Amino acid sequence: MKAPMTRREVLRGLGLIAGGLFLAACRRQAAPVETIGKEAATITSTPFEGREAMIEGIHWIGHASFRIEANGKVIYLDPWKVKQAKPADLILVTHGHHDHLSTEDIARIAKPDTVIVIAAPYANQVQGDVRPIAAGQTMTIGGITIEAVPSYNTNKPNHPRSAGNVGYIVEIGGRRIYHAGDTDLIPEMSAFRCDVALLPIGGKYTMDVKEAVEAVGRIKPKVAIPMHWGEIVGTAKDAEYFRGHMPEGVQAVILEPEG
After folding, report:
1. How many domains, the chain?
2. Do 129 and 210 lie in a common domain?
3. Which of 35, 89, 182, 192 is the most exposed place for a label (fewest CB within 10 A)?
């Protein structure tokens, strides 16, 4: 017959049992904690969450021409060869070349109360409620903020800085959308902040596709959309190169022209 356990032995045994139960409980909890951690990492590391919301209402007409529909407003940027002539609340024109400043297209989409914001040197070429603008200036029209930014060539004669051409950063519906106009890769881009960047990739008259990729790295938008390709200059191959060489955290979206 065994001798009775001492008080010390009883307490030691109870301690071992309690410790074992605690460790078992920890092991049972470990798997769920690890799973939650993995799921959280997946969510926070998804770089393109909200991408569809970023490009919602942005329609590529073709070349460098876009229509933005947001907050019940219709905005055109450099309207040219417009087929779906939805009446415009606001028209933005970057410079005076015929594929960006088309008085025929402007006349087709303008209403009596349409506001036309245009690079100042070309303001006398259009009729209506015309608001000249220069790089560095900001306007707010109908709740839409329009910031004009520099847009020029650095190694070509087509769009000298002295011409007064502009790009635009349009803020509407919680998004900042940058339309570069006809520009090369320029130092000022490092200070631009936007959610969506519409960038020329065609070369010859603007930056080429490799320079456009570098521009994306400087601007760091959430989404980049190539333009100034498919007509006059630039090819589908350029657009695919652009899409395939985005820096981390940026997604390129190639839009189909809607006319």
Report:
1. 2
2. yes
3. 35
